[in-house]
Amino acid sequence: MPNAFRLEEREGGVVLLTLDLPDKKVNTLSRAVLGELAQVIKGLEGRSDLRGLLFQSGKPGQFIAGADLNEIGAMAFASKEQIGQAIDFGHGLFTRLSRLPFPTVGLVDGNCMGGGTELILSLDYRIASNAPHTKIALPEVKIGVIPGWGGTQRMPRLIGLNAIDVICSGEAVDAKKAAALGLVFDAVPAERLVEEGLRLLDYAQSSGEWKRLREQRERPLGLSPDQAMFAFATAEGYIKGKTKGQYPAPLAALKAMQKGTNLPLEEGLKAEKEAALEVMGSPISANLVGIFFMNNRLTRDPGVDRTDLQPEAVKSVGVVGAGLMGSGIATAHARSGIPTAMVDVDESRVAAGLKRAEEVIASRIKIGRATPQDMADMLERLSTSTHQSLLADADVVVEAITENEKAKTATYKELAQYLKPGAILASNTSTISITRMAESTPDPSRFVGMHFFYPVDRMELVEVIRGAKTSDQTVVTIVALAKKIRKTPIVVQDCPGFLVNRVLFPYMNEALLLLQEGVPMDTIDAVATKFGMPMGPIALQDLVGLDTSFYAGKVLEHAYPDRAEPVPILADLVQSGQLGQKTGAGFRRHGGKRSEPNPAFASILEKHRSGTPPQDHETIQYRLFLPMLLEATRVLEEKIVREPADADMGLILGIGFPPFRGGILRWCDTEGADKLLERLKAFESLGKRFEPTETLKRHAQTGERFYPLPKLS
Ligand code: NAD
């Protein structure tokens, strides 16, 4: 037993119940903790002599983080029967809590998530601390499930139809908003919580309000049919539009509310259970839970296997190149509080870079995510020059000049005169070898790739690329720096394409080969978006620019000649100067309301058309995604990344691979390696790029998975 609760009887017949998990930083509601709570409740059920109960956390600034993580992980693979039992247990426990023979008040200071929120919803009143760390949420839909311990029923009974947004978005509310919604009675300073709680108990007792509220909350909410119809239909339309039918949890939560809120609470809880069983234990929920764990791992990952290294302090940063990427990288550092120096070759480029930096903050101010003060602070921290001597103070210098190896290595040689001893030099190159370029730097062990994605202010991923001589200390420092500027770093060994572009390329190339065979571009894009990709591969080619795609493709073709098929249609378009959106036309013609296939492309296609186009969408889908999967398995075999999760998170964050699929390797686990191996057989005649890898064959033969199933106790 965890011994998680302390029960203290105070003068005046009030008990203070404190949840404080021994030896843990945060409180979670594991089965053992809930079992102990059941015992505590049992002891209180007969105490009609008491005047009230205050419930609090014994960890200042940390209320209840939600259910136990390992149990969440196991539940994603549990049987319907096991899930049903867990729901019944929670319903029973919280109903008993809600019926104690005296008024109850929850005192919330810190994060109150999921099951923690369902717990306080079962109390008569709630008061929150007004500290910024206090956040209340039912975030279950984010991991593909719904609140299943009464949240979908008690929240609407407390705050009415506002519950739809709170539950279906899964977003947290702060104390002020919680008070405005009626979710908490009041928001007060943390040190006054107990005092205010006692006052509230006095009021509850003297007015008898708590009894009336209890009765009311056990009854149907009493929405008029029109009110209900309008609110639920509007929410359903909105959710369907947003999730494209790929995320069923918010709709299941809505259904539970729609069905249950106009019934007595007990019936409503049954509706909740029914809706919860539809989504809990589904592959989509397992995938989303998986992402939650992968994110957690990345947050804690120092970037190397050893644990004895601390990141070095980075007090100031330099950026060479004020172009599209350089200005974004400099802005990201400056707005995270780091003094940043940005240099470019002439005044006009520096000015253009500075303008882009201002635009980033201006657009954030527009949507309420930044203030004019943030703009002033960012600009104060960002200094600029046309001379590299400005970089003399920098602990880390990120090079983001034009993608040209000679220019880059010449810059490193020049920089050597100015950099302070021990400064780390990082390159934002997309395609050039870090190991090779390291030889032109003062200290190859202090040289590393730091590959940001465009647009830097919105893309969370940073690939941290280790050259052959990059030291662990350098990696640890750069990983910590990337986290400090609110990015998610993934450490990758040096190889052509690094992780993301290497795994993306076979998919993009296959799309072009399908086009060359005669599959309409709209069909290719539609199959990819139906799979869940944010946009189709042909549309993506036009967006990133066909020249960029072509030159990056050349690097990969050269590096992986056995499987990278050249696509002459791309080369011809580039040669004709039709480079995609930036020139008004590429595979499609842009500028009108809708992008139409580019008529000029028809003759290029006619010239190179070869092969027989596959007809069915399923075949096209496997043609697109199997090459991506095979490359991801090669990346693992070559130990380019340390974990399958690194590859999957890289793709989710770097190219928008659909989160509900959990990544390309998780997709393989879900589909089954044996089934995918069968699919590959049908593509044998297409050549080496469809040849199964050793990993895939082994998984198919032995049932091994990239993500082993959790053990259910
Ligand atoms: P860009 O052309 O917008 O900017 C490059 C800037 O570097 C220009 O302003 C140029 O004047 C400046 N420059 C050139 N030589 C210089 C020197 N010796 N000293 C100082 N400044 C110099 O290019 P970009 O898109 O910002 O790309 C920069 C780097 O980032 C490239 O290595 C590219 O491969 C990489 N990258 C680009 C993207 C992308 O989507 N654009 C994404 C990831 C990585």
Describe the structure.
The model has no long low-confidence stretch (mean pLDDT about 95). It is globular and about 85 Å long. With about 725 residues, the protein is α/β, with parallel strands linked by helices. It has an 8-stranded mixed beta sheet with strand order 13-12-11-14-15-16-17-18. The protein has a 6-stranded mixed beta sheet with strand order 1-2-3-5-7-10, with helices on both faces. Strand 14, helix 17 (about 405-415) and strand 15 (about 425) form a beta-alpha-beta unit. The protein has 3 domains: about 5-280, 2-enoyl-CoA Hydratase, Chain A, domain 1, CATH 3.90.226.10; about 315-495, Rossmann fold (3-Layer(aba) Sandwich), CATH 3.40.50.720; about 500-700, N-(1-d-carboxylethyl)-l-norvaline Dehydrogenase, domain 2, CATH 1.10.1040. The structure holds nicotinamide-adenine-dinucleotide. Nicotinamide-adenine-dinucleotide binds near residues 349 and 454.
Describe the structure in brief.
Helix content is 50%, strand content 12%. The chain is α/β, with parallel strands linked by helices.
Low-pLDDT sequence parts: none
Could you give a short account of the major beta sheet? 8 strands, mixed
Silhouette: globular
Strand tally, please?
A: 20
Bound molecules: nicotinamide-adenine-dinucleotide
Q: Find the CATH topology of the largest domain.
A: 2-enoyl-CoA Hydratase, Chain A, domain 1
Distance between the termini: 16 Å
Strand content: 5-15%
* Order of strands across the main sheet: 13-12-11-14-15-16-17-18
The Rg value, from CA coordinates, equals 29 Å
Just give the CATH class of the largest domain. Answer: Alpha Beta
Q: Mind telling me which CATH architecture of the largest domain this is?
A: Alpha-Beta Complex
How many individual helices?
Answer: 30
Q: Helicity level, as a percent range?
A: 40-55%
CATH superfamily of the largest domain: 2-enoyl-CoA Hydratase, Chain A, domain 1
The total tally of domains equals: 3
- What structural class do the secondary elements suggest? alpha/beta
Mean pLDDT across the residues is 96
